[in-house]
TrEMBL record:
It is a single-pass type I membrane protein. It is found in: Apical cell membrane. Residues 366-378 have a biased composition (Basic and acidic residues). Residues 361-380 are annotated as: Disordered. The chain crosses the membrane at residues 385-407. Calcium-independent membrane-associated phospholipase that catalyzes complete diacylation of phospholipids by hydrolyzing both sn-1 and sn-2 fatty acyl chains attached to the glycerol backbone (phospholipase B activity). Has dual phospholipase and lysophospholipase activities toward diacylphospholipids. Preferentially cleaves sn-2 ester bonds over sn-1 bonds. Acts as a lipase toward glycerolipid substrates. Hydrolyzes fatty acyl chains of diacylglycerols with preference for the sn-2 position and of triacylglycerols with not positional selectivity. This is Phospholipase B1, membrane-associated. It catalyses: 1,3-di-(9Z-octadecenoyl)-glycerol + H2O = 1-(9Z-octadecenoyl)-glycerol + (9Z)-octadecenoate + H(+); 1-hexadecanoyl-2-(9Z)-octadecenoyl-3-octadecanoyl-sn-glycerol + H2O = 1-hexadecanoyl-2-(9Z-octadecenoyl)-sn-glycerol + octadecanoate + H(+); 1-hexadecanoyl-2-(9Z-octadecenoyl)-sn-glycero-3-phosphocholine + H2O = 1-hexadecanoyl-sn-glycero-3-phosphocholine + (9Z)-octadecenoate + H(+); 1,2-dihexadecanoyl-sn-glycero-3-phosphocholine + 2 H2O = sn-glycerol 3-phosphocholine + 2 hexadecanoate + 2 H(+). Keywords: Cell membrane, Glycoprotein, Hydrolase, Lipid metabolism, Membrane, Repeat, Signal, Transmembrane, Transmembrane helix. It comes from Paramuricea clavata. One of its GO terms (biological process) is phospholipid metabolic process. Its main location: membrane. GO terms for molecular function: phosphatidylcholine lysophospholipase activity; phospholipase A2 activity; triacylglycerol lipase activity.
Amino acid sequence: MMKDLPAPVTLEHVMSSTFIKKHFMDSNLNNTSYHPIIEKPDFHCEVKNSGLQANSVHQVTAADISVVASLGDSIMIGLGARGTTMVDFFTEYRGISWSNGGDADLQDILTLPNILKKFNPKLKGYSTNIARHYEKNSGLNFATVSATSRHLEEQVHQLITKVKQDKTIDFKEDWKLVNIMSGTRDLCRLCGDMDEVTPDDYIRSLVKTLDTLQTKMPRTFVNLILPINVSSLYALNNRGRCMMGNWSICPCLGNEFMRKKISNFYEGYKSLVYELIGSGVYDRDEDFTVVLQPVFEDLLFDVPKDRDLFSLDCLHFSAKGNALAATALWNNMFEPVHKKLSRWHKPLTIKCPIENSPYLSTRTNSKTEAKSKRDQDSKSGMSPAVIVTVTLAIIFALSLITAFVYLKHRLRTPITKLKFSNKPWLKYSI
């Protein structure tokens, strides 16, 4: 029989003084300080700005980005990133958030906006200091503590309204970078109302959000980031310092059966997102695109070596974890589609845009780059005999692969993703 699970609670409840006093004041962890080590960024890229603004989303460079914004959940807000005790863990350090933080500069704090500021010092929208989502210092980071994917629709409307109202932003002409990551809280709610966190629910909210951006906010490049498979973090919970299971924010992780269920739902989320983006529905315009960045897709953590990447709850990033996530996202943005790294290799270094192709990678310009490389290879001086031999070898190999895939498909039991509705976004698209 499955062990009874603690009832899910909201982060707002956890942050209350009553809850903190009850669960932490008498805890052995109360006097435990945790000081994450922050490494100095190694930035050696040559910064160039032609002075000409891109006319196509497929030719956008880092210097073209004038506005940065973020939508999502508590992973996006620097929650507890500089917390040294469980009492001050619940502070939102948005200024050092990997996706939207803009405190100081890159010399001191490694965030995506601080890298972008190297290319465009007039960047707008980043967060500073400590702030809640409704406070001025939050900038254009509309992610909130307890948000699930269904809150994205509200957040995107808040974003569009605020960008329109900002007199320093040219709504029609400025290029905007919007980072979207949600689903972590959905996965942590599987012990509760699963009707709101199924893969179908997740993709429906995501499609409505992306469709709204596509139709209502011109010149927008969207970084779409899959949530972390939180079941993979459970190993960190056994290190003694973690309070992940104790304060019931992610109670499902305390049960092996539910951890497997989380992984299955995560695979469902991922499968539908890949189908959605692969359909090309967001590649039809010259002023809008969505690129899937697999920043957290294949994360594997070495305990205890990777413990310093996380804050006291082993769920949210420490200052060091935020810096590493920012580097991974930046690197993903310039890696061709289908060649993006989905696993961190420490230490990560900031990749520089390629001189002859300095654009943020999209499905369209990745295909153009691949074609250009093939054309160069064809002019490399190979003899006709070699070309014929290579071509025949490729045809033979493809024939074998096709036969293998066909037989495997005939004999294989349908995989988990086929249990989910077929292309559900079609019925939700605006």
